[in-house]
Design goal:
- This protein is α/β, with parallel strands linked by helices and about 375 residues long.
- It folds into 3 domains: about 5-135, Aldolase class I (TIM Barrel, Alpha-Beta Barrel); about 155-325, Glucose Oxidase, domain 1 (3-Layer(bba) Sandwich), CATH 3.50.30; about 330-365, no CATH class.
- It is built from 15 helices and 16 strands.
């Protein structure tokens, strides 16, 4: 407050005496306190509202991690019954700002990425000011990535529609999920956009391709066949199996092992990622299992997980967190678009990101 702050935020989950003392201290300087009720219980909220003097504002805050899971402030706003003016923060966009302001008691809208991620932040801020004044929906000229509710979102469709890449997805997963390097990446140059499909998994001993062809018959259009070969001295996938995949409209095949008939697979056009090419196959003995969890490059892939493939490689996305990672990938892409704008024609990544400053902070640690 001595530094010039007019409003100080205190977390509502703090001890009630801490909040009370913060309000008293603020009064001494003629300032105000906003209480952020993120993760505050209903009982704690009643104690906060009963404080005298009362806080100037309550903040309904949707954290970044909650946003990535598709959560929005409307459920909390709908239940909130208070005479204290309300601020709303977290994930506010042009699409949601007007809806937020229609809730009784909302006095302040706190916007971060809805402005900073736009190509023209000044224009974005001006548009949001219009919304606040008129409580109407407006569209930015720049593309807005509105986060969808979990029950409404189809993670695969959302990622394909938004044009995210496997690097975006991996970054959104804390730089994880990569299935590693596939030296044999057939039909890579034919990929025009991101492939996203549910995994059909199969685990087989070295060279035993029986369960592979059985798994192909279980594949539905758009799915990705993921083969884990225990050993890689003999091929478990080849031209005839590839023809079957094409007929079943399989989106792509990943072979954590060896494949063969490279020329034929290239003619058929199906994206096939394998560790190596070998001319020799094994016998179809029938050992192995279909639709069981497999491990590739240290990454667990379960049946039904999303597999993303583009020219950069393959990433596995756990089905249970697909919505969250779809949103995180969008968030990464938004930031990269902004950074690309800042680099422009004459800038550099080093200057925009202030890399030397980051290096110094790491070295100090």
């Amino acid at each position: 407050m001595k530094a010039g702050a007019d409003i100080v935020t205190v977390m509502g989950a703090s001890d009630i005496s801490t909040i009370e003392q913060a309000i008293i201290s603020a009064k001494k300087y003629g300032k105000q306190v906003m209480v952020d009720i993120l993760n505050a219980s209903a009982g704690q909220l009643k104690l906060i509202e009963a404080l005298r003097p009362a806080p100037a504002y309550l903040c309904v805050h949707t954290s970044i991690d909650q946003q990535m899971k598709g959560q929005k402030p409307f459920a909390v706003l709908g239940k909130l019954r208070t005479k204290i003016p309300v601020a709303v923060a977290g994930g506010i966009t042009t699409e949601s700002a007007a809806l937020v302001l229609r809730n009784k008691g909302v006095a302040i809208v706190i916007v971060g990425g809805g402005i900073t991620k736009e190509a023209n932040p000044a224009k974005a801020a001006a548009e949001l000011k219009k919304i606040m004044k008129n409580k109407i929906k407006l569209k930015f000229a720049a593309k807005s990535f509105e986060k969808n509710n979990e029950e409404k979102i189809n993670a695969a469709k959302q990622m394909k529609k938004s044009g995210v890449s496997t690097p975006n997805i991996s970054d959104g997963m804390m730089r994880s999920g990569s299935l590693g390097d596939f030296p044999l990446f057939l039909n890579r140059e034919k990929l025009k956009s991101l492939i996203l499909g549910r995994a059909v998994t199969v685990s087989v001993p070295e060279g035993d391709w029986a369960k592979v062809v059985e798994a192909i018959d279980l594949c539905k259009p758009g799915q990705v066949l993921v083969i884990n070969e225990i050993g890689d001295g003999r091929a478990v996938f080849g031209g005839l199996a590839c023809r079957s995949c094409v007929n079943r409209k399989v989106a792509a095949v990943i072979v954590n092992g060896a494949a063969r008939d490279v020329d034929e697979i290239e003619r058929l056009g199906l994206p096939v990622l394998a560790r190596k090419a070998l001319p020799n196959a094994g016998e179809p003995s029938g050992f192995g299992k279909i639709n069981v969890p497999v491990e590739i490059n240290g990454i667990r892939v379960a049946p039904g997980d999303l597999i993303a493939i583009d020219k950069s490689g393959a990433v596995a996305i756990p089905a249970s967190r697909a919505v969250e990672y779809a949103n995180r990938a969008l968030d990464v892409k938004e930031k990269e678009i902004r950074i690309a704008k800042e680099i422009g024609k004459k800038g550099t990544l080093g200057n925009v990101m202030n890399i030397k400053k980051w290096e110094l902070s790491w070295k100090k640690d």
